Amino acid sequence: MHATPVTLFLASAAVLAMGSSAQINGQVASVDSADSYCFFLPPMVGGDIAANEDQAIAFCNKPNAKAPGAKTFPDGFVQSAHFASGDGWVQITGQINPAGYSLNPCDAGGQYDIKAPVGATCAGYGYFVNVIEPEVGEYGMKCCNVKTDCDVAHSHLGVRRVFGEQYDYSGPMTITSPGCVNGTAPGGVTTAPTSAPVTFSAAGSSSSVPAVTTGAPPATSAAGSQSPTSAVPTGGAKAASAGSSTSVKMVATAVVAAVAGFLMV
């Protein structure tokens, strides 16, 4: 059987359609302000941060048109959000409550960037670096136009090393390490109580996500950057992947196109 021009065209269309489908499926994050932001997390409740580098998905504090297919952070997970920006970059830093997503309190964390998860991007920027540290209850997400502005080489030194000590990581909680040794807490507790997938309601549903001041003073930012008052999401719907039905239709169309192409020879 020889491939005809029609076959090749339809097969190529199938591949492109499937590629677009994958992009829609929660692989795009966005950082817009202290009240509109996204970053990546394991796709299952209680997932290990580093172990899910290849399959992490985007979560946002509320539905975001720039992040199609993103989930919504569980209630109470993000405790504070401090926005800063500079020449060609934006970032969000703050505090998380690991229990809000049943993360292991002894998880030392890990990094997500344009190489992992595969196909992940930050809307409007060519590069990003995202570090989550459940053990200390801190996170950071930075999106950059210039590769060197997003430090992907020092995640082992922690969030503050990657995003800058001068920025704000404060929040309303006092995070106390349970005395972890090699990822294990006293008594042998190493994982969260559940590993079930996250359950979300119908696409498009949402509840108000008020901005609440943490009371912490703004951080002193580097020249040319800013760090406004914290925004603390205290609510938020668990929205389903926007466009998930579109993804299914695109994949189905791709498969039909490919089959049709081969039958036409």
Query: Largest sheet, if any?
Result: 5 strands, antiparallel
**Structural class estimated from helices and strands:** alpha+beta
Strand order of the largest sheet: 6-7-11-10-8
State which percent range the strand residues make up.
Answer: 15-25%
Give the overall silhouette.
Answer: globular
List unreliable stretches of 5+ residues: 5-23, 191-265
- The residue fraction in helices comes out at 10-25%
What is the distance, rounded to the nearest whole angstrom, between the alpha carbons of the first and last residues? 7 Å
What average pLDDT do the residues reach? 71
| Order of helix and strand elements from N to C terminus | HEEEEEEEEEEEHH
The value of Rg in angstroms is 20 Å
Instruction: State the total count of DSSP E strands.
Output: 11
Q: What multimeric state do the chains show?
A: single chain
How many helices? The count is 3
Plain-language structure description:
- The protein is α+β, with helices and mostly antiparallel strands.
- The chain has helices at 5-24, 159-163, 244-263, and strands at 28-29, 31-33, 36-41, 57-60, 71-72, 82-86, 89-95, 110-113, 121-122, 127-133, 138-144.
- The strands form 3 sheets. The protein has a 5-stranded antiparallel beta sheet with strand order 6-7-11-10-8. Strands 2-3-4-5 form a 4-stranded mixed beta sheet, with no helix packed on it. Strands 1-9 form a two-stranded parallel ribbon.
- α1 runs antiparallel to α3.
- The longest helix has 20 residues, at 5-24.
- Mean pLDDT is 71; it is low at 5-23 and 191-265.
